[in-house]
Amino acid sequence: MPLALLALAIGAFGIGTTEFVTSGLLPEIADDFGVSIPTAGYLTTGYALGVLIGAPILAILGSRVPRKAMLMGLMGLFVAGNAISAAAPVFSVMLAGRVVASFAHGAFFGIGAIVAAGLVAPEKKAAALSMLFSGLTVANVVGVPMGTMVGQSAGWRITFFLIAGLGVLAVLGIAALVPRQPRPERARIGGELAAFRNPQVLLAMAMTVLGFGGVFTMTTYFTPTMTEAAGFAASSVTWLLVLFGLGMVAGNLIGGRYADRALMPMLLTALAGLAIVLALLPLATHSKIATVIAVPLIGAMGFATVPPLQKRVLDQAAEAPTLASAANIGAFNLGNAIAAWLGGLVISAGFGYTAPNWVGAAMAGSALLLALLSMALERRTGARGGARGGRIVARQELAPERQYS
Fold first, then answer.
1. Does residue 402 carry a pLDDT above 60?
2. CA-based Rg of the chain, rounded to a whole angstrom?
3. Which of 95, 208, 214, 251 could form a disulfide with 300 if both were Cys (CB 3.0 to 4.6 A apart)?
4. Beta strands in 69-147 (DSSP E)
């Protein structure tokens, strides 16, 4: 794997830290601003919606900018957003800072995914994508627990100032390690939008929304679930987040490795496992041992879906990947926003802090059904193409061996 992937992972590490650290600091932030925990959960929803909106906009606006320069500029926006959050005098200003930082998120991963995939041979694309997203997962092993620990001991504002510092380090890493990228050809908006007429692209994005969104029904309310429902001390949240992060790292690497061999079986396995573990977590919280087992499993199953889903979109939108790639990153965060909102609804309705996990299980199960539909449609399309001897056959002859074996 090229060393340039390390630079992209540094940026992903900073983004992953800021995205997930609010889960560990939600009570402190809510108390400081005098708002309820469900209201503080809007920091997750707002961030996710910012990614959804910002990803396609910045991907199009930056279509004429060399990709290396664009990645550096996006990390500069990330630094500004986290600095605003750290210095926010009121909750609304912090929410605004989260949205500013989130605008960098989708375009960074969308453009970064294209750069990462272009640095390796076609049969190693998913593995390269998993290296990019490894920064996001390692953030949950190192960045998020450390940020939570610092925030609980020295104040959450210090955590966000340190995250802004991570963004500066990422800019320097990209400048030093990512090779110079040629200026992209003039983007044709019509060509980029044409990818969304492919039902397989839309199905993959719907799977992204529902599948990964299921993870966030647990992570958004992680701290109250572990302390109020499972009975862990507040000091235990840090190492529980480390366990979750280790699961994410393992799932991301496994998903990337096996998606290059058999993409759809890997995706089906991960989605089924995620739905099952999320459904069992409310029961597992009656036992601390069972909870400790379930937490990393959710991380592993959730992030095992990331490389295959992103590769699925890149493959299906190969002729115009920029907007589709960025939009799929936005789809991850649309799922996050929906999950955080639905989780807040069931908590506010009095069902308790474990109830959002049942919502997440239903979302992951729905994504599994869409994956099965996608497979059925692709096989039917391939069969029709074979009968006609048309162009589709040439494009899909390798698909069964690569994706379904």
1. no
2. 20
3. 251
4. none
